[in-house]
Design a protein that fits this description.
The chain has helices spanning 3-18, 35-47, 60-69, 72-76, 80-90, 114-127, 129-136, 150-156, 162-176, 184-205, 299-306, 326-329, 337-340, 365-371; strands at residues 25-31, 52-58, 96-102, 141-146, 207-213, 219-224, 231-232, 235-236, 242-243, 252-254, 256-266, 271-273, 276-278, 282-286, 289-294, 315-320, 346-350, 379-383, 390-395, 400-405, 408-409. It is an alpha+beta fold and 411 residues long. It folds into two domains: 3-176, Thermophilic metalloprotease (M29) (Thermophilic metalloprotease-like, 3-Layer(aba) Sandwich); 202-230 and 251-409, no CATH class. The strands form five sheets. An eight-stranded antiparallel β-sheet has the order 15-14-11-6-5-19-20-21. The chain has a five-stranded antiparallel β-sheet with strand order 7-10-16-17-18, covered by helices on one side. Helix 1 (3-18) packs across helix 2 and helix 8 (150-156) packs across helix 9 (162-176). The protein is globular. The protein binds zinc ion (2 copies). The site of one zinc ion (ZN) has 7 residues, from strand 16. The site of one zinc ion has 7 residues, from strand 16.
């Protein structure tokens, strides 16, 4: 891969995506397969003035061994230090920020007991929730970005030798993340400005609900939570620092009301859950709850996911992404939600973001539930937008506005 582009990418992610501030602690999660990229990020972090950069190596093959060979009860019983190792840095007076570099093999856990995997992940997420609140509530700057992994590259470009597939995946990532422009910082500044303008218009309309239809049969009405806001492009932390939570990001998203979603929706892209693919799926909602569902591939896994907990069968996010997004235009199916969710409009099963409610960051989960914001241990984005999707909005004053026409912004 082009070393110069890789350093541009790392610099952009750390200095604009995370926006590391002087004296902050900076936590980098990176797969063990990508040490050079972690080192590039560490360098960029110190250049930005980080007090200390902490790298947390992640190893899917190791996780698979744990999942396969350790007892479920032992996997669920986390040690207090596992949570403290995050909280100690989050509670440091100098604050912290975090970058998660993903490079997942989409089939990393294929063939394992899906129920066990799900229950263990749920227990871990529940125990780590005090840390996750820091990112879910934008209390600190956080960013998720991806680099290629051999298993992932082979999945995206089957039939190519792994080296070539890795090379090709780097090229596509550089392309869709606007790194090949040679000036990603400027390209992202322009992109963020345009996305913010759409977001502001959507907020100005004061929408009560949105209605989505597509030729595949999708006919979905999503009522918005009370005091719901549209967010997108960049976010602002508790300390007032602007950051980009996902690289790439093309979406403008809001909080559905957990009891006001009705109709049927068809998935338009396969979806990777716990390392396995769910494909050709659809769900029917009544009063916010999934009452019927199906999938051509891994229907049992879809059912498993929707029953993770009481509210996993309700949605916490509705997001708009035009069909002209660089990710869809690349023509590549990434088998990775971070990219694929930015190729199409999507919904997310499970928890909603408190930041999608006016003043939500300072509310308790009970207060947020009251507003209609869903809560769950999961947040799973699934793609539902098509090139022919139409979306209209119903304003609180009864007026109708056109939001999407033929898969593109209509305003
Ligand atoms: Zn989203
Ligand atoms: Zn999401």
């Amino acid at each position: 891969m082009d070393q110069k582009l890789m350093q541009l990418y790392a610099d952009f992610i750390v200095k604009v995506g995370v926006n590391v501030q002087p004296r902050q602690n900076f936590i980098v999660r990176c797969p063990v397969t990508m040490p050079e990229f972690a080192h590039a990020c560490v360098r960029a972090g110190y250049e930005a003035g980080a007090k200390r950069v902490y790298v947390r190596w992640e190893d899917e093959r190791l996780s698979r061994l744990d999942m396969e060979l350790a007892a479920e009860a032992d996997l669920k019983a986390m040690q207090p230090f596992e949570l403290r190792s995050w909280l100690d840095l989050a509670e440091d007076p100098d604050g912290c920020c975090t970058l998660a570099i993903h490079a997942s093999d989409p089939e990393a856990y294929a063939g394992l007991d899906a129920g066990k995997l799900n229950r263990v992940n749920l227990a871990r997420r529940t125990m780590l929730k005090p840390w996750q609140e820091y990112t879910m509530n934008d209390r600190i700057q956080w960013c998720v970005a991806s680099v290629p992994a051999p298993g992932w590259a082979a999945k995206v470009f089957p039939g190519l030798p792994v080296d070539e597939a890795m090379e090709k995946l780097w090229d596509v990532i550089f392309e869709v993340c606007r790194v090949t422009t040679g000036a990603p910082v400027k390209a992202w500044r322009d992109h963020v400005a345009k996305t913010k303008a759409r977001r502001d218009q959507l907020n100005a309309w004061q929408l009560d609900s949105v209605h989505m239809t597509s030729a595949n049969g999708t006919d979905l009405t999503v009522g918005l939570a009370e005091d719901a806001t549209w967010e997108g492009a960049s976010s602002v932390s508790e300390r007032g620092v602007e950051f980009i939570a996902n690289v790439p990001t093309e979406e403008v998203f809001t909080a559905p009301h957990r009891e006001r979603v009705n109709g049927i929706v068809y998935g338009t892209r396969p979806y990777v859950y716990n390392g396995q693919l769910i494909d050709g799926w659809h769900v029917t909602f009544r009063d916010g709850k999934v009452v019927e569902q199906g999938a051509e591939k891994n229907a049992d896994l879809l059912a498993e996911m929707l029953s993770t907990d009481e509210n996993a069968c309700r949605i916490g996010e509705f997001a708009l992404v035009p069909a002209s997004s660089p990710i869809r235009k690349s023509g590549v199916l990434f088998y990775n939600t971070l990219f694929d969710e930015n190729a199409a409009c999507h919904i997310a099963f499970g928890a909603g973001y408190p930041t999608n409610i006016v003043g939500g960051r300072d509310m308790t989960r009970a207060q947020l539930l009251e507003k209609g914001l869903n809560d769950s241990a999961i947040h799973e984005d699934v793609m539902v937008g098509a090139v022919d999707s139409h979306i209209t909005g119903l304003r609180k004053n009864g007026e109708k506005v056109e939001i999407f026409k033929d898969g593109e912004w209509a305003f």
